[in-house]
Design a protein that fits this description.
globular; seven-stranded parallel sheet; single chain; Rossmann fold; UDP-galactose 4-epimerase, domain 1; binds uridine-5'-diphosphate-4-deoxy-4-fluoro-alpha-D-galactose; 10 helices; 14 strands; alpha/beta
């Protein structure tokens, strides 16, 4: 019987929300995993204590090689998730975003090509897409590219770097354009440094732990005046990452493919607030605020290719997504309170 094609993997950005969930999911499937994280934005305590972690910046040419050395120089797949991801911050610090996300991808791809890794999967973003898409309600992989933010531009260039490496070196690669990753899976809760994402902020506003939520723009050309986004459950995101690795492992040398990873359903900021209020059973205090620089009115995926070629059929139950996010967050807050009670060290 042929051995399973994914036995050893490297995950960059392993201390992030997606990275830590992917690491846990792979380990549950008995994949040997080495994580990489600079811990500038990621959390070491998001990983189980026995996960090997290379502390390093992926823009450094040796970082992936150091991780590969821990698995005898060979991995079946590298998942490149390490990135700066905040649209608003990227408008303030464009050069920093280009460096981290483009140079980082270049270094990871070069290390993979050098070590003849069979599959490289990049976490790209819907932010590469143009805001003007005519009358298309959902966007497939042929949609017009035209990032509105330096963050989106950095991911567009990262995709180009990946495609060029595949063409030149034979590295098989996939770029997954994530829409709004939400919910929770494998018990890993969403947290970012600092937290800027809508669902965790809405939950914390309802609990009175942060100031009232600011709704960024109520004059967008959408049905209720707030932005439409495609919130996709973490379970489906992880399924897409794993399926993408299998796709690349099975693909011929030099293959490169882009997939949109969403739920296929557009949800407004007001609808998210409604879901948080239903699930938590308490109001979300909010203030109607000006538009946030870099935002666009609507971003909703067409997931036809994801379904047809990767076999991933995303769910689109917003209340379930909010419930799973809240449950994971409660469990994590409880775990941290316990650790603090025992006077162990923990991030604030
Ligand atoms: N929003 C608010 N108030 C907040 C935070 C967010 O109104 O305090 C709004 C935003 O304006 C946006 C929506 O909620 O309309 C979602 O915002 P997030 O910050 O949660 O996520 P983004 O849409 O900005 O970005 C995310 C990922 C990107 C990805 C993008 C694709 O972080 O990597 O989704 O849709 F590109």
């Amino acid at each position: 019987m042929a051995p399973p094609p994914l036995q050893t993997a490297i995950v960059t950005g392993a201390g992030g929300f997606v990275g830590s969930t992917l690491v846990r999911s792979l380990r549950e499937a008995h994949v040997r995993v080495v994580g990489i994280d600079s811990l500038e934005r990621g959390f070491a305590d998001s990983l189980d204590g026995d996960v090997p972690l290379v502390h390093g910046d992926v823009t450094h040419p040796d970082t992936v090689a150091r991780a590969l050395a821990q698995v005898g120089g060979r991995a079946d797949a590298v998942f490149h998730l390490a990135a700066l991801i905040q649209v608003g911050e990227s408008v303030q610090q464009p050069a920093r975003y280009l460096h981290a996300n483009v140079v980082g991808t270049e270094a990871v791809a070069a290390a993979c090509a050098q070590a003849r890794v069979p599959a490289l999967v990049l976490a790209s973003s819907a932010a590469v897409l143009a805001s003007d898409q005519g009358d298309r309600a959902t966007l497939d992989e042929t949609a017009r590219i035209g990032p509105e933010s330096p963050y989106g531009e950095s991911k567009r260039r990262a995709e180009q770097v990946l495609a060029a490496h595949s063409a030149q070196t034979g590295l098989a690669s996939v770029a997954l354009r994530f829409f709004n990753v939400s919910g929770a899976h494998c018990g890993c809760a969403e947290r970012h440094k600092p937290e800027t994402h809508l669902i965790p902020l809405a939950i914390r506003s309802a609990l009175g732990e942060v100031p009232p939520l600011r709704v960024f723009g109520t004059d967008w050309p959408t049905p209720d005046g707030t932005c439409l986004r495609d919130y996709v459950h973490m379970r489906d995101v992880v399924a897409s990452l794993r399926a993408a690795a299998f796709w690349a492992i099975a693909a011929s040398a030099g293959s490169h493919r882009v997939f949109h990873v969403g739920s296929g359903v557009g949800t407004s900021v007001r609808q998210v607030i409604g879901a948080v209020e239903r699930v938590l059973g308490r109001p979300v205090p909010y203030i109607e605020s000006p538009r946030r620089p870099g935002d666009i009115a609507a971003l909703v995926a067409d997931v036809g290719r994801l379904r047809a070629e990767l076999g991933v059929h995303p769910a689109c139950d917003l209340d379930q997504m909010v419930r799973d996010a809240w449950m994971a967050w409660l469990a994590q807050a409880g775990a941290h309170a316990t650790v603090r009670g025992n006077r162990s060290s923990i991030d604030p």
